TrEMBL record:
SUPFAM superfamilies: Nucleotidyltransferase. Gene3D superfamilies: Beta Polymerase, domain 2, Winged helix-like DNA-binding domain superfamily/Winged helix DNA-binding domain. InterPro entries: NT_sf, WH-like_DNA-bd_sf. CDD domains: NT_KNTase_like. It comes from the Bacteria. This is Nucleotidyltransferase domain-containing protein.
Length: 213
């Protein structure tokens, strides 16, 4: 799936993109406003979709003077599932946070990065995750850690249909990579979405390297 285009999970048509715009905020939109958001779509195509959705009752149409405005009908029976689809990205991040919270102190930090974080996913995109392990493992800890990584990758695929690509660092390895100015870590600092630990801790580990450079 494409987390940035959640409605494509059920429909590849323009209808889904238009519904995503209307569901993004509880306000009215004109055709031109929708077109500015869906930059590659024609105004005529958007108008036809809105007309069809008005006929279904999912969208409410108002006219003030010569201006036509449209908004999602929050009382429609379909409004709840439409809103749920529009929130798939935040639902995914919430599930990740909840799952990783169960890892306890073993996990120092985790973030989603790459196209899933920047809103540029394609249908076959991987979902990239960075994990920083808190400390050296106790006896048998490596096996438990690997099992958790395997399960995490499985869950990401089951939740989204996309492969999970997990990059892991032990905490000392992470500090060494940060000191060396590892580009991947800079990308995570700029665009990553934190799902475990705190962004302030992550950023603080990169500052010494930034001052040296």
């Amino acid at each position: 799936m494409q987390l940035n285009r959640p409605f494509t999970t059920v429909t590849p048509t323009l209808d889904g993109d238009v519904l995503a715009v209307l569901a993004s905020a509880g306000v009215t939109f004109t055709v031109s406003q929708v077109q500015r958001i869906l930059a590659t779509r024609s105004g005529e195509g958007i108008r036809k979709v809105l007309t069809r959705l008005v006929q279904q009752g999912v969208v409410l149409h108002d006219q003030v003077g010569r201006t036509n405005t449209y908004r999602l009908n929050s009382e429609h029976l379909a409004a709840e599932p439409i809103m749920a689809l529009s929130r798939l990205n935040s639902t995914f991040l919430g599930r990740l946070e909840e799952h990783l919270d169960g890892w306890g102190k073993t996990l120092r930090y985790a973030a989603v990065f790459g196209s899933a974080a920047t809103g540029r996913m394609q249908l076959d995109s991987d979902i990239d995750l960075l994990l920083v392990r808190a400390a050296a493992p106790v006896h048998g800890g490596d096996d438990a850690w690997e099992e958790r990584l395997t399960e995490l990758a499985r869950l990401v695929t089951m939740w989204t249909g996309n492969d999970g690509r997990i990059v892991t660092y032990a905490e000392d390895e992470f500090r060494a990579a940060a000191a060396a100015g590892e580009p991947l870590l800079r990308d995570v600092a700029k665009q990553g979405l934190t799902v475990a630990g705190t962004r302030s801790w992550f950023s603080s580990q990169l500052r010494p390297a930034a001052r040296r450079s």
